[in-house]
Amino acid sequence: MRCGLLFSAGKDSSLVALLLEDFYDVTLVTASFGVVDPEPAREAADALGFPHETVDLDPAVAHDAVSRMYDDGYPRNGIQQVHEHAVERVAAGAWADDIDAVADGTRRDDRVPTVDRPLAQSVEDRFGVDYLAPLSGVGRGAIDGMVAETLAVETGPSAEIPKADYEVELRSLLRAEHGAGAVDEVFPEHTQSRVRGRS
User: Fold this and answer.
1) 2-198 — its CATH code?
2) What average pLDDT is seen over the chain?
């Protein structure tokens, strides 16, 4: 069976790849608006030993999400909108033919993004694939423990860790459309992770 896993080079999606590899032929798929280089994700995928693909997202979704985040003053709704679009693009097979499942690294403790049951069922019904979220019932402490046992991870401030996720792209688009100050107002600073390989 073939699974497309949304992949940013972070620890959550990398851990999901390891959890699924005994059951699926996993391809790590980076969804992109074409704003940032997907190379950090490609490098992480190579280091983990998984094939990597990219899928193009609709730029109109990015611009709508940026406007929404700017109006809201926080990123939650914009990131959620983009994640749902990315799940649908991967489920639709925009990166390959004949896939059986789409997966992501959403965790139990995530505030955003999340995929609720109605959306998961809708994706499965519309695209004829299974939606998988292996970490949706797992807390951060357990995830950190599993990651420490299996992955080599680099961490640091989000501005200093090169990743290939749509949050990086949304920050870039927000900066371009509303100025650097808007990024600081909308996005709280937080620690990012980037996987360097298996430990």
Assistant:
1) 3.40.50.620
2) 92
